[in-house]
TrEMBL record:
SUPFAM superfamilies from the UniProt entry: P-loop containing nucleoside triphosphate hydrolases
Domain named ABC transporter: residues: 2-231
Taxonomy, superkingdom: Bacteria
CDD domains to which the protein is assigned, alphabetical: ABC_DR_subfamily_A
InterPro entries: AAA+_ATPase (IPR003593), ABC_transporter-like_ATP-bd (IPR003439), P-loop_NTPase (IPR027417)
Family, similarity comment: Belongs to the ABC transporter superfamily.
A UniProt-annotated Pfam family: ABC_tran
Keyword hit for Nucleotide-binding: yes
Annotated protein name in UniProt: ATP-binding cassette domain-containing protein
GO molecular function, one term: ATP binding
Keywords from the named record: ATP-binding, Nucleotide-binding, Transport
């Protein structure tokens, strides 16, 4: 449904994105994740026909975003990072205006506005002036305007930015409810958000896609080592050397706090908890706690982003 092929965009001589290639299948909800400045908005602006790429092609529903931009715009509901709302208008007035701009036929306009207000829970505020609404409700209005004309594709750029925790839960729930009927690309720099809502995640860093997979597969594939947390009855320092000598152990670090806590990095292919437990006990030390530590998607993301940055810096030096 969405195809990006070799997208590159230069702002002057600076490449904002380079060779960005991905596909989003019909009915998929895909997270587009990356730190600030990674190139998410640039990619989205190309997909939403706001500007052409310097190189590459973008298609939505088989149509070229640059050459068939009118048709593409009709297929996309877009929630930009900063929703341009007319603050002095009422919710209903603004949505009626937006419906007209989106080409909803005059006789269907009222029903369509009612429909999107229903989906986004705006019926109680339909006569309120937009400027008087909370940020959460303004975001709902933004989402409602993206849903006008029931476009098959939704592109949502940082939909929860600037909202309070209750509003965030609200908007996430709304987006989750929409996924049955739409193909959704959700850009965010917040990992738990993407992991919660999306079945597939694309990670972009420094203008390039560095990984694409389900949150679970990304965690499994990219985890280079397994980690075991250990707490012993002594200060723990005595065990660092002993455990470091075990075959399969890559690194042992004493945790801050002087409470006998150690983190052990081991070969990913082996479960070393048994041998670690035996070793500790055989050395006459009481074992208080032992457990595997799963890397979160957040750790994976940090690992990817940091590795990429370090590699780029290395290249720049050599
Ligand atoms: N109009 C512009 N002119 C020059 N450089 C730009 C312009 N817009 C973006 N950039 C640069 O392009 C790179 C990618 O920016 P982009 O806004 O696409 O990232 P992003 O992932 O959306 O980040 P954020 O989450 O902060 O919005 C950044 O280095 C940014 O400074």
């Amino acid at each position: 449904m969405i195809q990006a092929e070799g997208l590159t965009k230069f702002y002057g001589s600076v490449p904002a994105i380079q060779n960005v290639t991905f596909e989003v299948e019909k009915g998929e909800i895909v997270g587009f994740l990356g730190p600030n400045g990674a190139g998410k908005t640039t990619t989205i602006r190309i997909l939403t026909c706001y500007m052409p790429p310097t190189v590459g092609t973008a298609r939505v529903g088989g149509r070229d975003c640059f050459q068939d931009s009118l048709e593409v715009r009709r297929m996309i509901g877009y929630l930009p990072e900063n929703v341009p709302l007319y603050g002095e208008m009422t919710v209903r007035g603004f949505l009626a205006f937006a419906a007209r701009a989106r080409g909803v036929e005059a006789r269907q306009r009222s029903a369509e506005v009612k429909r999107v207000m229903g989906v986004c829970g705006l019926e109680n505020v339909e006569r309120r002036i937009i400027a008087h609404l909370s940020k959460g409700y303004r975001q709902r209005v933004g989402l409602a305007q993206a849903l006008l004309n029931n476009p098959p594709v939704l592109i949502l750029d940082e939909p929860t930015i600037g909202l309070d925790p209750a509003q965030i839960v609200d908007i996430r729930r709304l987006i989750s409810d929409l996924r049955d009927d739409h193909t959704i690309l959700l850009s965010s720099h917040i990992l738990p958000e993407v992991a919660q809502i999306c079945r597939r995640v694309m990670i972009i860093n420094r203008g390039q896609i560095v990984a694409t997979d389900t949150p679970a597969n990304l965690t499994a594939q990219l985890q280079k080592s397994a980690q075991v947390f250990l707490r012993v009855a002594r200060d723990g320092a005595s065990m660092v050397e002993v455990l470091s000598r075990l075959p399969g152990v890559q690194q042992v670090t004493l945790q801050p706090g002087n409470d006998g806590a150690l983190m052990i990095e081991t070969d990913r292919t082996q479960d070393m908890r048994g041998v670690i437990a035996r070793t500790v006990v055989e050395h006459g030390v009481d074992l208080l706690e032992l457990r595997s530590v799963d890397l979160s998607l957040e750790d994976i993301f940090m690992q990817l982003v940091t590795e990429e940055t370090a590699e780029a810096e290395q290249e720049a030096v050599s």
